[in-house]
Structure to design on (319 residues):
């Protein structure tokens, strides 16, 4: 290489470094693996609207639903790792699917983990006129007549279904799972008394809880919820090892630049902890879950390991 070629190469290299250091120089795409209008989409748009002010660039939400989040997850995994494509990955994407499906079009371990976003508390609910007023009463009834009680869910492999499965395993009860195509019809049949119980997400259940259409026996997170201060936790009801909730975070394709990840990690955490965003999220019945990139990766790995045991013990497969 002569001096002219060396200078040319050096100039291009410096130009590339300068361009990289200026990230982001254009819009960032945020892939959401669910349809527009749902809880995950609302969280993404709420956070993105605030985060783009910090980044100084527009964040474009791109909905890619289907395949149990695999379509959206695969789009993220295949994207160029330059920081201009990131996306939501949830408990299904990162913790459940590897055990539910024999093969996946993405590898959860190969994402670039950026940070935690939110968790969706679940509640153990029964119809308003249910004879069961405590978790213990429900467990006793389930043990007295195995297979008589029924529980609805948003579908096989959903957080609602797997929460039920974990509950059954811990309490050694036989409760019949009744899957629906979505949380809304599952909740409606609970309200109507067609099923006996449901592990529902707080966000979609809250209006019906406040209207007195369902009774909540316990919450499935470690602490009592501010929105339901009088409702005990599972531990307080004697099911001490039971914790189950849906959660999500932000990931990107493998190999994203470290400085880009660090900036997103820092800005995302600050955005989630700001009053404007945290209050909007909490009003939806959802809790912010700020985590660093390293914390979110470790958390996801542990969740994947824990739920694999539940899924295997329940012999649950989706293909």
């Amino acid at each position: 290489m002569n001096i002219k070629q060396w200078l040319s190469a050096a100039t291009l290299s410096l130009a590339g470094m300068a361009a990289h250091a200026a990230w982001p120089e254009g819009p960032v795409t945020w892939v959401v693996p669910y349809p527009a209008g749902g809880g995950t989409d609302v969280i993404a748009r709420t956070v993105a609207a605030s985060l783009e002010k910090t980044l100084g660039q527009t964040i474009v939400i791109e909905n890619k639903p289907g395949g149990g989040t695999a379509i959206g997850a695969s789009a993220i995994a295949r994207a160029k790792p330059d920081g201009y494509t990131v996306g939501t990955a949830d408990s299904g994407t990162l913790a459940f699917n590897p055990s539910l499906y024999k093969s996946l079009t993405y590898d959860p371990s190969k994402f670039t983990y950026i940070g935690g976003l939110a968790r969706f508390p679940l509640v153990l609910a029964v119809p308003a006129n249910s004879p069961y007023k405590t978790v213990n009463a429900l467990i006793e009834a389930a043990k007295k007549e195995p297979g008589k009680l029924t529980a609805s869910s948003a579908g096989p492999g959903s957080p609602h279904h797997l929460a039920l499965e974990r509950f059954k395993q811990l309490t050694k009860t036989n409760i019949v799972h009744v899957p629906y195509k979505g949380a809304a019809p599952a909740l409606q049949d609970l309200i109507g008394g067609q099923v006996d119980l449901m592990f529902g997400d707080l966000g979609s259940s809250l209006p019906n809880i406040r209207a007195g259409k369902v009774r909540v026996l316990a919450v499935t997170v470690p602490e009592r919820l501010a929105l339901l201060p009088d409702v005990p936790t599972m531990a307080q009801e004697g099911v001490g090892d039971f914790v189950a909730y849906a959660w999500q975070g932000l990931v990107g394709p493998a190999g994203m630049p470290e400085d880009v990840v660090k900036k997103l990690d820092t800005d995302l955490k600050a955005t989630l902890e700001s009053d404007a965003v945290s209050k909007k999220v909490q009003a939806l019945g959802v809790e912010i879950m700020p985590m660093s990139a390293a914390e979110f990766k470790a958390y996801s790995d542990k969740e994947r390991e824990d739920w694999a045991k539940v899924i295997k013990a329940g012999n649950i497969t989706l293909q």
Notes: Residues 12 and 183 are 53 Å apart (CA to CA).
